[in-house]
Amino acid sequence: MVTTPYKKLGAYHWDWYAGAKQRYVRHVQFLSRYVREENTIDIGAGDGLISHVLTIKGVDNDPYAIKLAAEKGVKVDLGNATRLPYKIGQFDSALMSDTLEYISNFKKALSEARRVIKKYFYVSISSGGRFTQPGQRYHTWTPNDLVITVDNAGFRLVDGPIYKYDRQHYYFKFQKA
Q1: Chain-centre distance of CA 153, in angstroms?
Q2: What does pLDDT average to in each consecutive run of 10 residues of the chain (177 residues)?
């Protein structure tokens, strides 16, 4: 069973964005300038806000989050980051925005992201506390640890870490090796 905050909080990313929660607005605006490829998959799209703003395709494993995205007019595919429902090289790039921390089998998720892209992999992480409950963080990384982890999965760092806004968010751009 998927345990996420959406049943309790609803489409909270949309609320944060519309309510001008400044840190989140700046985060989304930065991603909209940083992720340049149109044919990008947003892995862990949740309620679809980032997919919508960046006009990219989204995928998530939570049917309720997908329903919330649909109510906002955003199509998010049902799929798991460890078994993406896409062909080899179907996308130019992939984005995981505050997603990788919540995936128990992150090595498989990185392998799947690598499989479905042609070139770039964007990651943003926040440096929050460590949680172990389903739907909460399974992993935390320092920026250096994340670079090593993603490099070991068949990518190489081309930009980052970029430290922005709340001094808790890091942005990275990797290229498929």
Answers
A1: 17
A2: 69 69 80 94 96 96 95 97 98 95 92 98 75 56 91 97 75 96
For strands 155-164 and 91-97, give the pairing: unpaired
Q: What is the maximal distance between C-alpha atoms in the chain?
A: 40
Q: What are phi and psi of 47, to 5 degrees?
A: -80, 5
* CATH architecture assigned to 7-176: 3-Layer(aba) Sandwich (3.40)
Distance CA 103, CA 38 (A): 25
pLDDT at residue 17 in the model: 66
All structural domains of the chain with their residue ranges: 7-176
Write phi, then psi, for 172 (nearest 5 degrees).
-135, 145
**If you write DSSP's letter for every residue of 64-119 in order, what string do you get?**
HHHHHHHHTT--EEE-BTTB-SS-TT-EEEEEEES-GGG-TTHHHHHHHHHHHEEE
Structure tokens at 54: 């960046």
Residues 100/90, Cβ–Cβ less than 8 Å = no
Q: Which long-range contacts (CB under 8 A, 24 or more apart) does 12-17 make?
A: 12/47, 13/46, 13/47, 13/49, 13/50, 14/47, 14/49, 14/72, 17/49, 17/53
